[in-house]
């Protein structure tokens, strides 16, 4: 017994020493010297500040020092992607500039930085900064830039933002990453920004000055010339003159049709809604459609990669839902809106565009379908909570429910939830909660299990569903659901639709 106790004590001592050594390695890097609280001045009268976090040093192998998951794609060898974008914003806006530095270097080895960043994020730590400005009182707008570490912003960004009273200020986030969107980090930025107004963020990868300029124009941070505004809505100069004349005469056309196609979709059409503003969309209309008989209608909303600032038709170029849907009904119009965010504004624009199609085209109102992937699912769930009466069925994949539940239950709108059990962005819990909430509302209505099963489907996929299809990432793997005949077949099923219509 004594021998066993002695061995246990030795093992505990060894373990404690290893923990101390590991902690020292991860959190006691060489101290950064020479940092100060001064900002790089922009225009003399500026009221904007660009702040960015950039890890000191360069990881071997050409990997971006700021984001170990991202290759350094900027044209300047000595600086990171995030710093490059920060300086683009300064150049375009005339803002002041400040570089956030932690008081100690992160380790140069990839795994060392990754491990430190993971522990900081998991424990919600706030690493100490080497220096920061004494006050941000003179600034109305704070641009905050960072790489994506473990799907969110580095914790040093929280250290900086929480160090000031941001009441009355506007925070504009931007991030750099080759493969992760900004959506997960937005919750963190809102949390650490206090009572500031936080605008929708922008993810930059392989983007030039013109792309950043276009983003700043869209969010109202950079003034546009009339010609730039015309180009943004897809008008040539001559078309713009015609449109301008039409506006002045009160005869503005509802739609500016796109002039290019991609895989039989007409891309970059613009619906000029009097209430919801200009709405960009791509549309597939079968050659057989002549308006003489009603066709089905399908709206598909993309994830982050498909938002309009990612480029014209980026939504249908990055996702296959609109193309795979054609296999289920050759008499179906397919609309892929390109919106600017995942909130209320985009939801209202989706509704306005849908109402336009219902009014202007001969649509079978018993066959109006919707789906949303990732952030598009967040928006489309808001749409469903507002106007479930417009739809026959809804498919939500790899997302979370942000809309109201009661209107959906009152309308008895069929909903299919599909997500990976270990979805890297959302996890499966929000989807499970949405399903349980709707089912509870149906139970209050007195529906039987069989009736509820016709209205609600919860499909949480195990990891091997994705690996068997050569996909390791479960969130990005949500795009595989477009090829799943069971999932897509449910959405476009005439039998399910007829059964539900009888129950309404």
From TrEMBL:
Q: Which Gene3D superfamilies match?
A: 3.40.50.360, alpha/beta hydrolase
Q: Which residues form the Peptidase S9 prolyl oligopeptidase catalytic domain?
A: 340-399
The organism's place on the tree of life at top rank: Bacteria
Q: What is this protein called?
A: Peptidase S9 prolyl oligopeptidase catalytic domain-containing protein
Q: Would I find Cytoplasm among this entry's keywords? A: no
One GO biological process term: proteolysis
Pfam families found in the cross-reference section:
Flavodoxin_4 (PF12682), Peptidase_S9 (PF00326)
Q: Where are the transmembrane segments?
A: 9-27
Q: Which UniProt keywords apply?
A: Membrane, Transmembrane, Transmembrane helix
Question: What are this entry's molecular-function GO terms?
Answer: FMN binding; oxidoreductase activity, acting on NAD(P)H; serine-type peptidase activity
Residue ranges of the Flavodoxin-like domain?
A: 79-218
* Source lineage: Bacteria, Bacillati, Bacillota, Clostridia, Lachnospirales
Quote the InterPro entries the UniProt record gives: AB_hydrolase_fold (IPR029058), Flavodoxin/NO_synth (IPR008254), Flavoprotein-like_sf (IPR029039), Peptidase_S9_cat (IPR001375)
């Amino acid at each position: 017994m004594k021998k066993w106790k002695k061995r246990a004590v030795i093992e505990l001592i060894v373990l404690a020493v290893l923990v101390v050594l590991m902690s020292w390695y991860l959190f006691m890097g060489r101290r950064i010297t020479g940092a100060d609280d001064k900002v790089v001045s922009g225009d003399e009268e500026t009221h904007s500040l660009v702040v960015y976090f950039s890890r000191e040093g360069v990881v071997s192998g050409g990997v971006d020092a700021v984001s170990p998951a991202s290759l350094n794609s900027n044209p300047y060898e000595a600086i990171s992607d995030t710093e490059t974008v920060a300086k683009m914003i300064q150049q375009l806006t005339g803002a002041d500039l400040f570089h956030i530095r932690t008081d100690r270097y992160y380790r140069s080895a990839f795994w060392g930085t990754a491990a430190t960043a993971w522990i900081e994020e998991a424990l919600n730590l706030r690493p100490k900064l080497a220096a920061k400005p004494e006050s941000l009182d003179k600034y109305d707008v704070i641009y905050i830039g960072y790489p994506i570490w473990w799907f969110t912003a580095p914790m040093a960004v929280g250290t900086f933002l929480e160090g000031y009273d941001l009441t009355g200020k506007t925070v504009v986030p931007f991030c750099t990453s080759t493969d992760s969107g900004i959506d997960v980090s937005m919750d963190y930025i809102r949390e650490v920004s206090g009572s500031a107004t936080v605008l929708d963020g922008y993810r930059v990868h392989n983007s030039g000055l013109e792309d950043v300029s276009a983003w700043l124009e869209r969010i109202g941070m950079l003034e546009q010339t009339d010609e730039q505004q015309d180009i943004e809505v897809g008008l040539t100069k001559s078309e713009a003159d015609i449109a301008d004349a039409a506006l002045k005469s009160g005869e503005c056309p509802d739609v500016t049709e796109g002039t290019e196609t991609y895989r039989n979709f007409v891309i970059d059409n613009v619906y000029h809604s009097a209430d919801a503003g200009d709405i960009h969309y791509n549309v597939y209309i079968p050659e057989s459609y002549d308006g003489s008989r009603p066709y089905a209608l399908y709206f598909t909303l993309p994830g982050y990669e498909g938002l309009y600032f990612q480029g014209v038709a980026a939504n249908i170029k990055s996702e296959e839902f609109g193309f795979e849907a054609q296999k289920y009904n050759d008499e179906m119009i397919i609309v892929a809106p390109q919106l600017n965010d995942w909130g209320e504004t985009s939801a209202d624009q989706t509704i306005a565009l849908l109402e336009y199609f219902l009014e202007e085209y001969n649509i079978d109102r018993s066959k109006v379908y919707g789906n949303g992937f990732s952030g598009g699912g967040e928006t489309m769930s808001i749409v469903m909570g507002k106007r479930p009466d417009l739809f026959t069925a809804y498919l939500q994949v790899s997302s979370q429910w942000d809309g109201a539940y009661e209107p959906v239950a009152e309308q008895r709108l069929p909903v299919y939830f599909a997500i990976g059990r270990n979805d890297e962005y959302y996890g499966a819990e929000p989807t499970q909660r949405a399903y349980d909430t709707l089912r509870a509302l149906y139970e209050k209505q007195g529906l039987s299990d069989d009736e509820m099963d016709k209205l609600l489907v919860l499909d949480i996929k195990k990891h091997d569903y994705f690996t068997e299809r050569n996909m390791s990432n479960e969130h990005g793997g949500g795009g595989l659901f477009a090829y799943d005949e069971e999932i897509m077949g449910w959405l476009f099923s005439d039998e399910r639709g007829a059964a539900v219509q009888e129950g309404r």
